[in-house]
Amino acid sequence: MQYHPTTVPMHGKHLLITEAVRGESGRLFALQDGKPSYFMEEKYPELGNLMPRDVIAREEWMLLQQGKQIWLDMRHLDKNIQQTKLRGVLNDCSQFLSLDPTKKPIPVVPGIHYFMGGIWVDRQHRTTMRGLYASGECACQYHGANRLGGNSLLGAIYGGTIAAQSAMADSFKIPQVEDTHISKSVHAGKDGCYVDGILNLRHVLQHSLGIVREERTLQAALAELQNLQEQMTYDASASVYENQMLQNCNLLGQALLMSADARKESRGAHNRSDFPEENSDYQKQTVARFDGKVINITLESAGETNAH
After folding, report:
1. Would you call 222 helix, strand, or coil by DSSP?
2. Considering 53, 58, 147, 267, which one is annotated as catalytic?
3. Does 113 score more than 90 pLDDT?
């Protein structure tokens, strides 16, 4: 999970403040004894506020644990830059925060920004399901331990091209099969279990898969999701799709927790307080597979597994 270091909580969601602000020399600070402390510049003098997202998010997290507020300051920037390159930031702050960032700093916190995993594909973007291909942001191919913004373009254009070529090449090899109706077992109804389940799932994952993780909280969260799965019943007030989605999201949540627990190191956006150092044994991709009964977690080098 990539946390973006400059977001603003609002109405249950987070407003993203583009890192173009820091790219134009915007400064992060927290108050220390009533005076601004430019913590990134002090700790990382070479790059300062231009350090990678995961580094800045961790530094902010440590300050937040001390009860400090993080601020993003663009008041000192050239007015022409403010009004042209950063015009969108001015508009967003004015419209959604009632704040003029040319006069006051922006209060920011790290926010969940990007899921760097995805469907496991081979180098030709084939998935493990014959006839199904994945590219773009839903595929696992490009991100590794961190993510760069340009990767979206890479996945969409290059990945899309390769997936299309593979689909065309394979279209003559895949036998045609008749559509089959997928039946779903329906348990005793319980009004409201879909909404309650989604809210519980979100709460558990947000509190266990934060910027810094540890084995104790990961395993406790996994036990909660497994208990939620056992208690799950069919919600007659929700659609068949919603009922199925709750089960699938719970399954994915368990896979995320098991994957984070299995990687006993800190690397990129994955930070473990109980394993703070990188371990070369884990310089591979984490792969989660569900065989219909249990989730299996393995570590595999990119492209070493044939999807078929």
Report:
1. helix
2. 53
3. no
